[in-house]
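Comment thread on ticket #2218

A.B. wrote:
> Attaching the input chain for the structure job we discussed in standup.
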Amino acid sequence: MKLPLALLGLLAPGLANAAGLTGQHALYTLELSKVRTHDITGATGQLSFDVVDGCTGWATTQHMTLLVRGVDGSLTKTVTDYITWESKDGKTLTFTLRERDNDGKEQIDDAGTATHTAADGSGIIAYTTPANTTLRMPPGTLFPMAHTEALLAAGAAGEKFISPTLFDGTTADGAQATFVAILGHHGPMPNTYPALAALPSADVDIAFYERKNDDENPDFRSQMRYFADGVADDMSLDFGDFVMTAKLTHLSIPPSPCGAK
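C.D. wrote:
> Ran it. Output below, let me know if you need it in another format.
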């Protein structure tokens, strides 16, 4: 299951002078909006997303609980935890991804460190779980926050799409292809959360693909409104068999501990 909030911000044209990405604590309620199979009759869930500015790097923690009801009335519970540390120099990403089922049994357990070892953006992914697994990152591979910076630059330049290679630690198959379409731009407008009211935002569509797969259908796809500080709202999360909406129900943004950016 591809994780939605391994994604971070997008900046639209004219937003280049915004405050930039910040730490955040965001809570979302997940609701079923579309079903593509007769096997599913309902789904609900919760998602929490925390970003901490560590001055030399960004620490992110994501926790998602998803309940899916089958046509026979059975409930399938999935609990996912995703934790990363990305150095601000863009060289290193440490990651842990764990997913548990109804009985608390781990279905996914990935962890390791990815390091850029060459100026062309290539490098090595050393997994500690699965043990003794090492993969190469192709040239141009970006980590999540660097991926965000690329999206910021694309938006500021007025581009309509960008397709960088990404490694975020949410798959044991290494780097993925991404395609981001910029669908629309918004200036500051009234918002339930004062921290967002003064910020411009952009509507985006982000698709993730296996690099070795020629299938034109993405592994995961998400649409959302991204604010200039990296907060996401109005999300649509496409898991293939079904689509969930994610509504922002709580947001707090701590002051930066690192002084002027």
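A.B. wrote:
> Thanks. Noting for the ticket: The CA atoms of residues 11 and 34 lie 28 Å apart.
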